[in-house]
Amino acid sequence: MTLLRPSRLALLAVAVSAAGVAADGTFNVVSFNVAGLPEILQNNGESGDKTNNTALIGQKFAEQAFDLIHVQEDFNYHATLYEYDNHTYRTATSGGAAIGSGLNSLSNYEWRDFTRVKWDECSNASGADCLTPKGFTYMRWRLAEGVYVDAYNLHADAGTEDDDETARNANVAQVSAYIEATSPDAAVLVFGDTNCRYTRTADDIDLFSTANNLTDVWMQLERGGVRPTVEDVCANPAQSATCEVVDKIFYRPSPLVDLAPTSFSYVAELFLSDPANSSSTLSDHNPLLADFSWAASATLRSSDFLGGPHGTGFSDISALAALSAPSPAGATLSLRGSERLDAVGIALADGATSFSHGGTGGTAASLVMESGEYVNNVTLCQGKYNDHTRIFYLEATTNNGNAVSTGTLNDDCLVSVAPEGWGLVGFWGRDGDEVDLLAALWAPVS
């Protein structure tokens, strides 16, 4: 058992994750294909030139202050879009047409682990989908301390030829598999230009529901769960909320955070060059807007993450959520480490629930807690090893002031404090031979 002396902790430039954070709130999301291919390649039949249209889109993004915007076809007019927008958090472009994916995100909230993934399959049967590296993006979007939603932005293969259908089906399956591997216990948002319609069964857009338990907000709120059997293509602007576009918004809650859509709308009327002229649209796509409410769980919550996007994902969330009341009191915390955190594990006092993550290296250390004792404070430090960000140090302190630690203390640390009367019951993150990414899971003492 190692106690961290206050004099050492005082020297650290640590970020403190304080208890008593927001437990619920609201947000909105927008999906918009901004038609940013060079005009010489595709003019989209819209009024005005693309530079001016893109400037207006950026202005309207700023005016409306949407919380998370996923754009597609953000190619050659990207600089103009960002010049006129003012969102705090924005992805860097991956390049213009033939170089980049055209996928970008703008947000009022920060994220971590942003990743771009290229499609494994594409088709030029109906167009030039293979001439630019389309695909999808992933980010872990942070709404509040310990409240994360895994957000995906995609632009699937277009066209209706057999090869297009095959490629698009593969695109949907690729995103679905990535969600399964990366976001198994996370709340999820998937939205973008799917190029899918429910009347085209070969697209298999239902895979998001059947394999990933995602719900289409439009289907839920505007269609009452009844899928269209006859193609009803929306005009631009859409004249009805029940007609279908290829752009979609899917969502899924998690045991940590409940998500509930409260409204859905097509909002092309917000993106007109002339508000008095409904034909003055800025893109050939209807933008989608959905409002959500969220609420943190009353029985299981997370700290913030520290570490990097390497290794393999792990999570104790599902197993803990399946228990009636997992209590942190009287647990045994086990660590392994030397220069870095090699492994972490916890065994609850119920005698049946235990978790272990990481490798077999390092020296073992443990903290056996009394019946009313529980870990309510976890300090993590991160650093670089072999160009990967990993957890270099972990120290856990109980409500009785006992502590255990391992690894190398540095000056890039996060102190996470459990809500009052809550304690440590598990973890989620990423691991391999060592621990790469980590967050604590808290539950009420019972």
TrEMBL record:
Matches recorded under CDD domains: Jacalin_EEP
MF (Gene Ontology): endonuclease activity
Gene3D superfamilies per record: Endonuclease/exonuclease/phosphatase, Jacalin-like lectin domain
Taxonomy of the source species: Eukaryota, Fungi, Dikarya, Ascomycota, Pezizomycotina
Protein name per UniProt: Endonuclease/Exonuclease/phosphatase
The keyword Transmembrane helix is annotated on this UniProt entry: no
Record keywords: Endonuclease, Hydrolase, Nuclease, Signal
Start and end residues of each Jacalin-type lectin domain: 311-444
PANTHER family: SPHINGOMYELINASE DDB_G0288017, SPHINGOMYELINASE FAMILY MEMBER
Superkingdom, taxonomy of origin: Eukaryota
Tagged with keyword DNA-binding: no
Region forming the signal peptide: 1-23
